Automatic annotation (TrEMBL):
It comes from Jeotgalicoccus aerolatus. Pathway: Carbohydrate degradation; glycolysis; D-glyceraldehyde 3-phosphate and glycerone phosphate from D-glucose: step 3/4. Its EC number is 2.7.1.11. Keywords: Allosteric enzyme, ATP-binding, Cytoplasm, Glycolysis, Kinase, Magnesium, Metal-binding, Nucleotide-binding, Transferase. This is ATP-dependent 6-phosphofructokinase. The active site is at 127 (proton acceptor). The gene is pfkA. Homotetramer. ATP binds at residues 11, 72-73, 102-105. Its cofactor is Mg(2+). Belongs to the phosphofructokinase type A (PFKA) family. ATP-dependent PFK group I subfamily. Prokaryotic clade 'B1' sub-subfamily. Allosterically activated by ADP and other diphosphonucleosides, and allosterically inhibited by phosphoenolpyruvate. It catalyses: beta-D-fructose 6-phosphate + ATP = beta-D-fructose 1,6-bisphosphate + ADP + H(+). Signal peptide: none annotated.
Length: 319
């Protein structure tokens, strides 16, 4: 393989830049021509593809978001769109593509290989919901951001003796809510993977009140319900004053943690190695600190399991 390209797709995640930089520089180190594509799959369709040099990825490792911009492309979901994308790559002689993104981006990369382009995925999403890797790029930074925000809310909750309901990201995955809840000492955590009864939550809050506890923190993943709905439902079981806080997009941005930069650097370079080994249709990952490659076909059908012991532990610690 003599020419490869790199793009970012789907939601941005801190550490994507480290992965871009690593893929580009590793390719140059291996004497391969490398191209950067801006605006994700849309950029492939519209030929936003340019040859990259070492300097093109300079001064980005410490920045949040993605220097290549990201996009959600409806056109790429059509065969005609993907054909245009593949033709544009082939016209430049590019045989391999590294797709840095979430599971949707992996689905796109999987379909592109049917058109003769070798593709390797690099898992980047704050949700940490991709099978085949213990952790995704962006998760560590987002988790730390959320815990920092909850710590601030805790100051107010304590000072004003109130219950706060904090809504965090996670449509289908409770990873962020669960681990942020544990790390921030939340009394209750709602995650999509588990059914938590509001009557039980009210009972626990009442038990806390009975022993003199005047404030509490509830973390709810957006996929379960909104913080507002949670507050309305809770009010049906217990008469306490609650305040809500929806963390929103502050969870996604920001300077990547050292952990995300290391992970991005390792996986970006590994994706290049996989392409050079002739691999295609796989997602790069880490498992027990070893680099791994998992077939897309497997990634699509497997759900990453949440760790029930963490849920149990957070319950035991917030009695
Ligand atoms: P995040 O987890 O942060 O949302 P993601 O990569 O899952 O990231 P998506 O919006 O689901 O984000 O997917 C990114 C892009 O991948 C889509 O806009 C689309 O262009 C492409 N894509 C997703 N699913 C498919 C599919 N089934 N076939 C072809 N392309 C797809």
């Amino acid at each position: 393989m003599r020419k490869i390209a790199v793009l970012t797709s789907g939601g941005d995640a801190p550490g994507m830049n480290a992965a871009i930089r690593s893929a580009v520089r590793k390719a140059i180190y291996e004497n391969i021509e490398v191209y950067i594509v801006s605006h994700g799959f849309n950029g492939l369709i519209h030929n936003n593809i340019k040859r990259a040099d070492l300097g093109d990825v300079g001064d980005i490792i410490h920045r949040g978001g993605t220097a290549l911009y990201s996009a959600r492309s409806e056109e790429f979901k059509t065969l005609a769109g993907r054909q245009k994308a593949a033709d544009n790559l082939k016209a430049l002689g590019i045989e391999g593509l590294i797709v840095i993104g979430g599971d949707g981006s992996y689905a796109g990369a999987d379909k592109l290989q049917e058109l003769g382009i070798n593709t390797v995925g690099v898992p980047a999403t704050i949700d940490n919901d991709i099978f085949g890797t213990d952790v995704t790029i962006g998760y560590d930074t987002a988790l730390n951001t959320i815990v920092d925000m909850i710590d601030r809310i805790r100051d107010t909750a304590t000072s004003h003796e109130r219950t706060f309901i904090i809504e965090v990201m996670g449509r289908d995955s409770g990873e962020l809510a669960l681990n942020a809840g544990l790390a921030a000492g939340a009394e209750t955590i709602f995650i999509p993977e588990r059914n938590t009864k509001m009557s039980d939550v009210a009972e626990r809050i009442q038990a806390g009140l009975d022993r003199g506890k005047k404030h509490s923190l509830i973390v709810v993943a957006e996929g379960v319900m909104s913080a507002e709905y949670c507050s309305t439902e809770l009010a049906k079981y217990i008469k306490i004053e609650t305040r809500i806080s929806v963390l929103g997009h502050i969870q996604r941005g920001g300077k990547p943690s050292a952990g995300d930069r290391v992970l991005g650097s390792r996986l970006g370079a590994y994706a290049v190695e996989l392409l050079l080994l002739g691999r295609s249709g796989v997602g790069a990952g880490v498992s027990r600190n070893e680099l791994t490659a998992t077939e897309f076909s497997y990634v699509h059908v497997q759900n990453k399991q949440y760790d029930n012991s963490i849920y149990q532990l957070s319950k035991e610690l917030s009695i």
